[in-house]
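Researcher: I'd like a structural prediction for the single chain below. Treat it as a standalone chain; there are no partners to consider.
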Amino acid sequence: MIRQRLVDEPDLFFKGQRQAESDPKGAPRRAPGTELLRDLEMVAAIVNRATRRLAGATAGMNGSHLENARRQIERIQNQLNPMDGRIQREQATMLNQAQRTTILELSAQGVSQHEIARVLGISV
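Model: Treating it as a single chain, here is the predicted structure.
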């Protein structure tokens, strides 16, 4: 669907980029991808801290505490695994930079969307 929109209306790509670069007041704002990466960096930092604490903490934890910790880890994994799967699916369907450039160039030359899709071997 995203590919189709890019093929149909390549100018939307540039419009979206311009809008993402600044908010209505003109102040730059972070792209959602940048914010996601920042959030994931924070998650990784917290996991690193928890890993360091684990070495000294388990000796003083009873069975209930250990079970609670294990359940929390399982909960976190259950939240991260679908995110990873979604990112992998997105990666598999993304157009690379060369494909996007080709689409824009061919569209500017008046080549039909069906012909662009045929040349690139993608579905419309």
